[in-house]
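User: These chains co-purify. Model them together.
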Amino acid sequence: MKQPFENAIDAHGPTVLRVCRAVLGATVDADDAWSETFVAALRAWPELPEHTNVEAWLVRVAHRKAIDVVRANRRHAVPTDELPATAPSTEGVPHDGDPDLWSAVAALPERQRLAVAYHYVGGLTHGDTAELIGGTADAVRRAAADGIRALRKTYASSATQEGKR
Amino acid sequence: MNTHDNPALDLASALPVHTDELDLLRSRLAERAGHDGLLDVAYRTIDTPLGPLLLAATDRGLVRVAYEREEFEQVLDTIARRVSPRILRTPARLDEVARELDEYFAGHRRTFDLALDHSLSAGFRAEVHRNLPTIGYGRTASYGEVAALVGRPRAVRAVGTACATNPLPIVVPCHRVVRSDGSLGGYVGGVEAKTTLLTLEGAA
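Assistant: Joint model of the two components:
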């Protein structure tokens, strides 16, 4: 790629951060995955073919880096007697005043979350997402649709609440 | 990108990412890239009495100073093609250059004490560029005198072209080269900028 790398950060930095946060939660893990993605991209940049769809390429790199971050954390995991706090339940009434869409995304079942992240946030086709996370394009499409329906519900209710305030 | 088939919920805009968060990530990336030897060209812009200037440097030194009229985006594209596309905005790497230019514009500095990377100059032009700093602060030389200086007394036009394509204006003082009849001649930053620089140096 003969374009200045800085242009890729300008154009796709926010998208990649959203993808990393959708996959890993809005945490330092997501920040790390973002950094690892762009370091790897910078390394590969001069050899990247000119016609590459840079956004889709970065999202694929981000997927691998997110997996690396999860694996690294598992290796460093400290066994404990107590169970860690789990994601907020999606059953019953979600609370705490400020229903934030980031936590709603984090609360989606994994496959729905990944299908939504890579397609709706990262712009990959369902087929490309299926290649990354396994399964068929149709199954990924259904997972993405289920995920987005759940989010729309949360988002709509939070938007209504905002309106009432 | 609006290729997503979901007008009802635009997730990209509904999921906020703050500018300051991205700025922090970017500066960490630049630091890491420098550490890993992946940052080939660092750049920043500064404000000067001649308007914004773009400064770019490699490990070897300052490689480009550009006026806004040269269009920064095009300047960066050229650096990407001719030096390396591993270009990141990294202001801290150019603090020293920015400081020396500030001092120069304030009238406190007469010579620059900076490492220069002449990668963007080649051949005869490069030879002219390397010789321009011999024209002292506050002095001028004609295109013909510069041609004689580099041992090609008849290459007056070529000296003109070399000055017009100087990748390091101000620091490599092509503004001190004028016509033999005393008129200013052209300048990469515009004739007004040339006048301002020569006035600052007390040469006009």
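Chain A touches chain B through 37 residues (CB under 8 Å).
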